[in-house]
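Exercise 7. Given the components listed, write out the predicted structure of the assembled complex. Treat all entries as one system.
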Amino acid sequence: MDNSKKTISKVLLSGNEAIARGAYEAGVAVSTAYPGTPSSEISPAIAAYGTAKVEWSVNEKVALEVAIGSSFCGARSICSMKHVGLNVASDPLLTVTYTGVKGGLVIISADDPGMHSSQNEQDNRHYGRFAKIPVLEPSDSQEAKDFTKLAFSISEQFDTPVIVRMTTRVCHAKTIVELSEPETMERKYSFEKNPHKYVMVPAFAKKRHVIIEDRLNKLKEFSESTELNRIEYGIDKNTGIICSGITYQYVKESFPDVSILKLGFVYPLCESKISEFCESVKNVYVIEELDNFLYTEIKAKGINVLSKPDKFMLDELNPDKVHEILTGEPKEKISNIPPKPPAMCPGCTHRGVFHTLKKMKFTVVGDIGCYTLGSLPPLSSLDTCVCMGASIGMLHGMTKVLPEKEKQNVAAVIGDSTFFHSGITGLIDIVYNKGIGTILILDNQTTAMTGKQEHPGTGFTINLEPTVSILPEKICEAIGIKNIKVVDPYDLKSIQGALTESLNSSEVSVIVFRRECVLKGKKKKASYAYIIADKCVNCRQCLNIGCPAISNTTPPVINMALCNGCGVCIQICKTGAIECKKI
Amino acid sequence: MQKNITKTKNILFAGIGGQGIILASEIISQTLFEAGYDVKKSEIHGMSQRGGSVTSEIRFGDKVYSPLIPNSEVDFLVIFNDTELERNRIYLSETGEIIRFEESDIDFIQKEKVKNVYLLGKLAYFLPVNKELWLSVIKDMVPPAYLEENLSAFINGYEKQSKTTNK
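Answer.
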């Protein structure tokens, strides 16, 4: 954002930009992340300040390990990821809680209630209890900035990693933020040997566990005194609401007069403050998005509070749902016209591959990325999606048990960024265990779904500095795979040829479909396709590839403004009614 | 600073991915912010941006809490793609306005690409912010190479709406 001409201290920031600002103001030295909606904008925004070392990591586990390393040397370090990313990083998380930190270590978990762009809606507040570390939950951008700053000092004061738990509606809402000057951080970074703290072998870890339990008690005291947990008595002292995060804004919107205990420090909880609130207000409800996390914790302390109806365990909340929770009267209107589903872009490099897989009746073990859209009609040719990198391991498991005839027809589909993230280990596993099967690496040379971020195959870092460009096929070669092909995904004949060959192979085969994503860079369109109405027999075959540029009319018409000239429809048309025009 | 609204006003943009809804919502929220209002804006990134239905919600007033608009309280429903009208109509308040691209708008716009800013011009006519502030924010936010066509799209939209409303 360009604020050069005005010296304003207030700006509009998204929650993600506000986290970046908070990290900058706290003098953060290292920021690591793997992109994932709704967290992707945080690390690039930190990079834009130019004061920290910022990297895209290959996955969230590595991202956290890098941040732990820099923290151990005294540097304030931040690590951002989406909720499911924290599952990947949970291994280091559950032990760095034992070692503690040196420089403040803050983990941003961006949860996605409502699953706008995710495979599940897990509630990552549970990680606070699991790892016995503090969880802070901002409700708008101002708090996202303030809480991030505070998280660094809590981390250093209590020698603990800290989670700042965001949700989609906080990450991607813009609200007004008052800026401060960055703290001056004159630290000399060094690693001081201390095996009792940093080497978690049983003898040392047992002693650290004692410290962790003691730390949790100190954090409980902090939770009682911090202004992050505050009581706002309203005109209405009969109704009290305990809430946190975005839910606080919905409560204020729908019930401006009720009394509220707003929790910003959601783990460990402030038991005395909660008791005080419950004693001074008649009926106290806990209103929270997703799991009954706060409710369960509060009930376990023997405090009498009311919870939301079970149906609100699902999906994100909003002002109307909060109204229903408190009054029992449904208010939310839901349009009976479904939203237009997302689709692969015109010219998407994945379209021809999925069309051919469908034609050849493959069972397709899928993965996470734009190509997951291959499951939607009319392509309808992606059959599973579990987690990052799962396609390759699952392919191996399926071929272990499927009858001979069926196992030939299974293929795994994985994107380039996902392959680097966690596909490589699965591939080594297949080779080592003498598996068979076809692995298709859809290499569009970017992390497309999350916003075209760089990765180890693109040749650039997050700061767009040139770096190595790792080719997936070289990795395949190095681990002993013999059948490797690189194919242009716009060429349907070659796709079919390569797939047919892999079907007849008794070993693992890899086909890399390589062509740059149409969204990447500013490409000048070279050509577009058009339908010659006289030649069209209205067979509708061109509509079966699900290209948004082709209209479902009689005869179909190609919108030249949308068409990117990939030529896939031209190869599909049996009557030669589609031609290409150069621009 | 221009202030004459106390009750929060709600604007809903509805279209499909790739129509420039996010740029339009960035311009409007920045303009309202610079005009002195409390502003919140919410939208969804990621999968929904691959050509699917996209909405952006903008709320402004003295003090705004929820970034999401409570049901049926939309004051201005701005339709970027006709397919999205019927689905979103139910969210309109009783006195709400629908702003969309109509037959009569075709002559006022040169390029499909600036339709987002043209619609913003039509909407701006109804909002309590002077035209100069809008233009200065557009100058701040649109890259120089596209500035001229966006400025004229905005002005054309604004003037078209003022003629239509005053007829």
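Discussion: Chain A touches chain B through 46 residues (CB under 8 Å). Chain A has 21 helices and 20 strands.
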